[in-house]
From TrEMBL:
It holds the Pfam family Actin. This is Actin. Gene3D superfamilies: 3.30.420.40, Actin, Chain A, domain 4. Belongs to the actin family. It catalyses: ATP + H2O = ADP + phosphate + H(+). InterPro entries: Actin (IPR004000), ATPase_NBD (IPR043129).
């Protein structure tokens, strides 16, 4: 999306685990930061940030700065997570995080650039109105587009009909899509995501004082998904902790995190969740949905994930039914937002600041 002055749009994905931001028309986000802030537990004059300033209890460090600061000052600072289950719960912290991105990562004035927001399929009209209020009233953006992340993931593949499986930080879910519209009656959700896997990894390693970000890194680098045709099981691996100590990550531990997505306590793993979503859609659409299964989210990057999905879908639907699984691209929903944000043909669904100021309910009307 480019406004009348030729100014490029910023594409922003405020996720539970990561905030991704960058310019529309580019292939990858310019910045990817953990969605985390550091807050002062008790003020001591020696606690300072990257520029040497002291902190009071109203000030924040964000992203990797926050993680580093808490590691250096664990008695003074603590981590807080301003987004839970894909919804902002601490608007002040997110506002300051966005202010930091505008001022330091992009070094631009917020009122000069349109914004595309990658939005959760589960957000409510009230939540979208609050997002619009933040960007129009606080950041004074010239125009705003709020779009469903699953639809954007599908759009990143160049198609508008299919089913998207997103396995993110807080949950995993499937969204059937027809001609660019999410079929809400077919959405299925499982409350297991990357955070669940990270905490399971941390519990399995059973090391007192292990930081969550370290456990997440171990999971992302060493986590596995088991497959029946694995000729030789993956071995145990060693991981060097930030303090120089080495921890042994056993093969059972490595496989256990991935198994949570395929054999959860509910008995409905990701392949069955996917087929349940397809089964709720009109029979005339089901062949098209099976023919374009798009997988997105950090958990899908685990070794063996796509092979297990293909094998289990094939076993569940039986022989003779064709299906196609794609989507090994990272940040697919952000990429879809980048593509959409660069198309002038989508001007009719943007909201301008003037439109918002003239009619507060325009967000509800456009994004119902």
């Amino acid at each position: 999306m480019v406004d009348d002055n030729g100014t490029a749009a910023l594409v922003i994905d405020i996720g539970t685990g990561l905030i991704k931001a960058g310019w529309a028309g580019e292939d990858t986000p310019r910045t990817i930061q953990p969605t985390v802030v550091a807050r002062v537990k008790k003020f001591r004059g020696e606690v300072t940030g990257p520029s040497g300033q002291g902190y009071d209890d109203q000030e924040f460090l964000t992203g990797t700065h926050a993680i580093r600061a808490v590691a250096e000052h664990p008695d003074d600072l603590e981590l807080a997570f301003p987004v839970e289950h894909q919804e902002i719960v601490d608007w002040s912290a997110v506002t300051q995080t966005l202010e930091y991105l505008y001022a330091h990562e992009f070094q631009v004035d917020s009122d000069k650039h349109p914004v595309v927001i990658v939005d959760s399929p589960f957000s409510t009209p009230k939540y979208r109105e609050k997002l619009a209020d933040l960007f129009f009233r606080h950041f004074r953006v010239p125009s705003l587009l709020i779009y469903n992340s699953a639809v954007l993931s599908l759009f990143s593949t160049g198609t508008t009909r299919g089913i998207v499986l997103q396995s993110g930080e807080s949950s995993s879910y499937v969204v059937p899509i027809f001609e660019g519209y999410a079929l809400r009656h077919g959405i299925e959700k499982m409350d297991i995501g990357g955070d669940s896997l990270t905490r399971a990894m941390m519990a399995s390693l059973d090391r007192t004082g292990m930081r969550l970000d370290v456990a997440r890194d171990i999971k992302e680098k060493l986590g596995l998904v088991k497959n029946a045709n694995d000729a030789v099981p993956e071995p145990s691996m060693q991981y060097e902790l930030p303090d120089g100590q080495v921890v042994e990550v056993g093969k059972e531990c490595r496989y256990a995190v991935g198994e949570m997505l395929f054999s959860p306590p509910s008995g409905v793993g990701l392949p069955r969740l996917l087929l349940n979503g397809i089964g709720k859609c009109d029979a005339n659409l089901q062949t098209d949905l099976l023919g374009n299964i798009v997988i997105d989210g950090g958990n899908s990057l685990m070794k063996g994930f796509h092979e297990r999905m293909n094998a289990e879908i094939n076993a569940l639907i039986g022989p003779g039914k064709p299906f196609h699984v794609t989507g090994k691209r990272k940040h697919a929903s952000w990429v879809g937002g980048s593509m959409m944000g660069s198309l002038s043909t989508f001007d009719d669904i943007h909201i301008t600041r003037q439109e918002f100021e003239d009619a507060d309910d325009i967000v509800h009307k456009k994004y119902l």
